[in-house]
Amino acid sequence: MDHVEGVSPVQVGRRIRDLRAKLGLKQQDLASTDISASYISLIESGKRAPSDAVLTTLARKLGCSPEHLRTGRDDHATEDARLRLSFAEMALRNGDNGEALQAFGELLSKGALLDLSMRLRARIGQATALEKLDRVEAAIPVLEDLVKDPSLAAGSDEWCRVSVALGRCYRTMGDVTLSIEICERALATLDSLGLDVTVDHIQVGSTLIASYLMRGDITRAHLLAQKLIPVAEEHGGRTGRGAVYWNAGLVAVSRRQLPEALALTERALAMMADDDNLRHVAMLKVNVAWLELQSGNPDPARARELLEDAGETLAQFGTAVEQGRCEICLVDANMQLGRWDEAADHARRALGLMSSGPRVEAVGARVRLAEIHLLRGDADQGLQALHAATRQLRHFTASYETAQEWRHIGDVWKRQGRSKEALDAYDHALQASGMPMTYDPAQALTQESRR
């Protein structure tokens, strides 16, 4: 018999004996042509472990399930727990993340009712709900425990989902190096299993591309995207192919190939438009809108329409950060349309959404708010917001994202004729992008004169 959670043959035998006695049956009553009364006696005394087939036969005669004989779980309570687990997963799919998290927590607090597969589903659901609620720090230890769980078979769909989520969470927390290590290790594991290329490869690879981009490894991201595109075309469904084109579009953005980026992202949106993952579709619309605003011939009205549509979906299914990014893009769209009041409102909403933790995106919202104040002639408010953005950005570690924000701050200072502040911001942008200051030969002369 496959023992469940350390259940011994003695415990199984005791349950069979007690239930038989409760029903007023004798050992002979449980016997059949394949199971003798003496064998029943050995089972009840714990000297024999019944096979699955024998356990099924005995359960049928005792009017219970084989699972009840194995574990002692009440059949009705277990079925109720199974239904509650399904409802919790449904709530998660529908965007009721808080309700889902509470339901998963209640189920896990009554672990005796859950078998191994049910407990695994509940823990994965709990981690997913925590991430969607932007409680990433709480999600990480749950995911770390799941990765180490021997019941989570390497190469399985659940294992892939957990690995991808863990890499994504560490990236969200700013530990891009660890995110890359997790995803590279997951890809190596999939390769070592000798499996045919699957959707799992595509999911892990897509997450890895995004982490490479955040670290500024544009070449690696580009090479991986080029490798995944033909794989996705051959093995992936529309959603898998869409994910690859989505990330390939991000790579093209980093390479400043904006027309190509827009075409790739539009293609991803077309592939995923009918997908039931409304959150992903909304995020793609945000990307398309952003690229539209960056193009040589922007259409801010179309971008605004896409963003408003995406915003409604993200308000229900997205995280606070994803909603904040949508709001920031709405700032840009409304600024291009000359709608200053609406742009300022969206900037303030973005700041409110980013208030739960240190986010580089919050810096971007402050810089845009500063620009709006300055364009409207409110120099005091504008400079105050710009100084606040500068102070906040100094607390972030160097990355491709922080380099972009330093560049933005420098451009705003430059437009205000503040050369000193602009040069300081540009200097930070260069250092954040990995370009240190050159050596000053005058230092050697100064040191020589002191000797």
From TrEMBL:
What are the UniProt keywords, alphabetically?
DNA-binding, TPR repeat
Whether NAD counts among this entry's keywords is: no
- Tell me where in this chain the HTH cro/C1-type domain is found: 16-69
Q: Where are this protein's TPR repeats?
A: 403-436
The protein, known as? Tetratricopeptide (TPR) repeat protein
Q: Which organism is it from?
A: Streptomyces pseudovenezuelae
What Gene3D superfamilies does UniProt report for this protein, alphabetically? lambda repressor-like DNA-binding domains, Tetratricopeptide repeat domain
The keyword DNA-binding is assigned to this record: yes
